[in-house]
UniProtKB/TrEMBL annotation:
Pfam families: Epimerase. SUPFAM superfamilies: NAD(P)-binding Rossmann-fold domains. The lineage of its organism: Bacteria, Pseudomonadati, Thermodesulfobacteriota, Desulfovibrionia, Desulfovibrionales. Signal peptide: none annotated. Residues 7-241 form the NAD-dependent epimerase/dehydratase domain. PANTHER family: BIFUNCTIONAL POLYMYXIN RESISTANCE PROTEIN ARNA, UDP-D-APIOSE_UDP-D-XYLOSE SYNTHASE 2. This is NAD-dependent epimerase/dehydratase family protein.
Amino acid sequence: MSSFRACVLGASGFLGSHLVHHLLKAGCQVHAFSRDSRRNPLLTDELMSSCSIFTGDFFNTQDVERALADCDVCFHLVSTTIPKTSNDDPLRDVRENLSGSLTLLECVRRTGVRKVVYASSGGAIYGKHLMPRISENHPTDPLCSYGIVKLAVEKYLALYHELYGIDYAALRISNPFGPLQRTSAEQGVIGVFLGKILRNEPLHVWGDGSVVRDYIYVEDVARALVLAARLNTEHHVFNIGSGAGLSLNDIIDMMRSVTGRDVVVKYDQNRVFDVPYSVLDVSLAERELGWRALFPFKVGVSLAWVWLCENS
């Protein structure tokens, strides 16, 4: 599929906004589904001419099927929890995100959508790691309900592929960051830290700052999602990350350099669901999708900082 008709569920979110922009620039027709109809700040009037806005409730099958109608691909970006909150109420996580995803798959089956591209998690699914770089074949032992549910959705995607021939790709995304990332959220450390720096507030770090993560610029993620929709391979699960690790202390030092501001840091005790080291092996995506991350971390942080300064 060079160009296709795509339904983006969660289109007004951070990743969804960038994905819709990327799809429209690639010449696709887009059904952008979200709970509200706020304007995507990345879209020009010209791009909006190829975008149909659908507002509704992800848990209402009529709303979802209306958005899926006549689409080739469904991008499933909806999640109502994050790793921290999922353990507070696992029943809610299962009820909303697992049952909701199963209901979506039934909608996909009824409407004839050919492929589902799912935003899974490259951090929460694997749990404690045995290897320095985590491949898709690494054991999956999530430490939080969020990761368990993400993994379960992947398994149901595989089941519906087997039963009904619905193609799918599950992208295990590391830690995306960039313009439009919320600065007041509980997840997304780059956006949160930059927001605090802009407001001259201290940064709060769980642990001693040595925790290492894989961070990837949001435009690289959007490009991976589109490639996964277009290409058919025998593989269905892909790690999407930079393939390199940075500690929180490394990030803070780089933010001092990018922003030119002094940064006060307050350290607290570790959280039980934080694994000490998480860096993805992305060689499968490079080989099968022809994809690799193009934005160096410092460049991405600089772009995010400029956006934040200009739009605050």
